Amino acid sequence: MDYRLSTIPHLSLFLPMPFKFESLNIRNKALDLSVEIDELAKAFPKHEMFNLCSQIRRAADSVILNIAEGSAGQTNPEFKRFLNYSLRSGIEVVSCFFIARKKNYTDENEFKKYYEKYEVLIKMITSFRDKLN
After folding, report:
1. In 10 A of CB 130, how many CB atoms?
2. Which residues have a Cβ under 8 Å from the Cβ of 129 and sit 6 or more positions away?
3. Is 8 helix (H, G, I), strand (E, B) or coil?
4. How far apart are CA 110 and CA 125, in angstroms?
5. Please, what's the b/e burial string for 39-51 (b: 16 or more CB within 10 A of its CB; e: otherwise)?
6. pLDDT by residue (tens digit) across 4-38?
7. 120 phi and psi, to 5 degrees?
8. Dihedral of CA 69/57/130/2: which sign?
9. Measuring CA to CA, how many Å separate 9 from each of 3, 46, 88?
């Protein structure tokens, strides 16, 4: 699915070029995972709605939001700073999964699946960050 606003015909006059972050693989992976986490959190107990559900959703969203914000015409050192925030948020998502697993809100297979997905994403962000001058 293409998430660029510039693909909407009546907006293409206003947005002739996509934002820089739209072409980044790390952004696309983070977006997909954010959507998955949102769906997953819906299955958590209702009493966690304003606690763990909210925390894991905000952390997953923060990964992509920091990638986008950092890419917005910033210098490479500034972009790296935002990528570091993104990495920390990814680690926060993983930490939330440890809590969810300990409280039996997720099974071992689901835990492993998302642990591995976030491990890949964190390695991708780290590699991307390290290649910036």
Report:
1. 9
2. 80, 83, 84, 87
3. coil
4. 22
5. ebbeebeeebeee
6. 444 445 444 455 557 778 888 999 999 999 999 99
7. -65, -50
8. negative
9. 13, 41, 37
Q: Which two tokens stand for residue 108?
A: 């071992």
pTM for the structure as a whole? 0.83
pLDDT tens digit sequence for 95-110: 999 999 999 999 999 9
Which residues, in sequence order, are CB contacts of 82 under 8 Å at separation 6+?
A: 66, 67, 69, 70, 71, 74
- For residues 12-34, one letter each, b for 16 or more C-beta atoms within 10 angstroms of the residue's C-beta and e for the rest, the string is eeeeeeebebbebebbbbbbebb
Residue 111 one-letter amino acid: F
Q: Which CATH superfamily is domain 18-131 in?
A: 23S rRNA-intervening sequence (1.20.1440.60)
- The residue ranges of every structural domain in the chain are 18-131
